[in-house]
Amino acid sequence: MTVSVQGSWGSGKSSVMAMAVKRVRDRDDRQVNVVEFNTWQYSQFNLGEQLAANLIRRIADCVAPATATPEQLERKQRLKQHLGTLALAGADFLFEEAAPWIPQGHRLASFWRKLNDRVERRKPENEPADQVQAITELRDTFANLVAQSKERVVVLIDDLDRLEPRRAVELLESIKIFLDVPGCVFVLAVDIEIVEEGVSARYGSSGDSAKDAARGRRYFEKLIQVPFHVPVYAYDVEALLEAGVEAAGLTTGEHAKSYLSFARQVGSSNPRAVKRLTNTLALQKLVKTAESPDSSIGDQGGLDLFAMLCLQSAHPEVAAFVYQLQYEGSGVKGLVQFLEKGEESGEDEAWAPENKQLVDKQAWERDWGAAKNMLYMVTAHFSGGADDSINEQRFRAAAEQAADADGRPGQWNLIGDPGGMRARLSELGIKARDIGWGFEFADATADFLTPVGQSGRMWTLNFANSEHRGPKRFGMLSFGVNRMGLSIERVAQAYESEAALRELSEQWAKKLNVEFGQGTELPRLEASTLEDLPVSVRLRWYGRDPQPAALLAQFVRELVLGPESGARVTQK
């Protein structure tokens, strides 16, 4: 008989199996031999091909230990001989089929045949003649071994979902073929999605994910006689949250419902997800206390941080953007503005900020749309008081602490970690020449510009002057595999009118030797005033033909700081 303990990652499958084992072993009248088999070690050391054989050996060693009767030990030895016959049969096939395709393969195959002949001459008379007979005798020997033990054998197999899906399915098939015998019960902790993936990997995909999933479920139902689904919705998540928060040195108190509301956005029925959140909360509180014992996180601050951690867990890309808003100085007010712009657009799609339009607008709209309900919850959480104003100080503290916990490359400072930023861009497929150009441009504008790393292929361009008032960001620099782009969102007051902006940009388009205005041909410089941003100046060019960094720096300096900056223009 085969029993499944089914549930997703972190739903408590291992805990359920552990409770069942304890219940069985605590019985005084038990006639049960419990065998535990964890597949994780095989996934770690790439031993998936030996999984079934090692499972059989493990069961045999538990059913017939060294103190067993001579007859049991003899059957165990026979069982292992059958495994050896099957292994040799598999090796025969491998060497004969692979020989034509590998260097000196004929010699390797010849050597294997000679070695196999020696094994055949020394093989006992009662050894099976072929692998079909070996499979039959292996099953019969295993059944007799279990029957002789006079105990019910319960085999618990955990962490199947840590295996490669195809290997997990192969193990299920081995259990059905070799080990499904009277007196032997298999209990499997499994995620049905892993089985669905494994069936597609082993037998091919139809190209229709819904059909593949249905086929995987039907396949699984044929192997499992007793399915048990972990009752995740019966968990007392509120008690789990309270215990985790108290372990962090905080109390839920009047905030208990708020904790639960945010946890539900992540998937509060998953105890491991909840535990990870409360563990992160506890770690950040310890770090904050170590940094400044007088400003440790209190109960309100703990809930604030938990809200941001839930956003980060459920919608990591959107959370990274929120952290970036805080880093640039607009903070929660900027977040509210983005939400309001989305409402004013009257469309289902999210309103995409300028820097996201330069990357993958559709992906961003999908992420933003999925996160909107939670973003409203977050902004409402930080609102209050008689005038329902937003507490920017609390938001800033929580966002900065959550960003520290996230540790995303998007929070790197280019000047502080240039090596890390080079590595990040290289991982994204950006050519070394273009990365070098970016650093050259940063050096040429270092007196007024500070590049800050952001997730994806983007650098935020901030004002370097710490005394600058207003938003810190004035533009973005984007790196593409084949092209690059510079976007300026804020310029000197002298160029805020459409006419002045176009006049300056058109002059510079000639000096940079690029097209001016709307169009698709690159390189090109575009300029306009927008409602959602003060201005928009965008320069795009092919990576193989980069703009001179020093000359482009002069254009940006004059555009952002104004004509009084003293920028001198040289003809290209």
Question: Average pLDDT, to the nearest integer?
Answer: 75
End-to-end distance, in Å?
A: 81 Å
Number of helices: 22
Secondary structural class = alpha/beta
Radius of gyration: 33 Å
Contiguous low-pLDDT stretches (5 residues minimum) are 88-109, 567-572
Give the neighbour order of strands across the main sheet.
8-9-10-11-14-13-12
Helix content: 55-70%
User: How much of the residues is beta strand, in percent?
Assistant: 5-15%
Tell me which oligomeric state these chains represent.
Answer: single chain
What descriptive keywords fit this protein?
alpha/beta; 7-stranded mixed sheet; about 575 residues; 5-stranded parallel sheet; disordered C terminus
Please explain how this structure is put together.
The protein is of the alpha/beta class and 572 residues long. Helix content is 55%, strand content 13%. Strands 8-9-10-11-14-13-12 form a seven-stranded mixed sheet. Strands 2-3-4-1-5 form a five-stranded parallel sheet, sandwiched between helices. It is elongated. The N and C termini lie far apart (81 Å).
Compile the SSE list and pairings.
Layout: E1 2-6, H1 13-25, E2 32-38, H2 40-44, H3 51-63, H4 70-98, H5 105-122, H6 131-149, E3 152-158, H7 165-179, E4 184-190, H8 192-203, H9 209-223, E5 226-229, H10 237-247, H11 256-266, H12 271-291, H13 299-314, H14 316-328, H15 331-345, H16 354-357, H17 361-381, E6 383-384, E7 389-390, H18 392-406, H19 418-427, H20 432-444, E8 449-454, E9 458-463, E10 473-479, E11 483-488, H21 498-512, E12 515-516, E13 524-528, E14 536-542, H22 549-561
Parallel strand pairs: 1-4, 1-5, 2-3, 3-4, 12-13
Antiparallel strand pairs: 6-7, 8-9, 9-10, 10-11, 11-14, 13-14
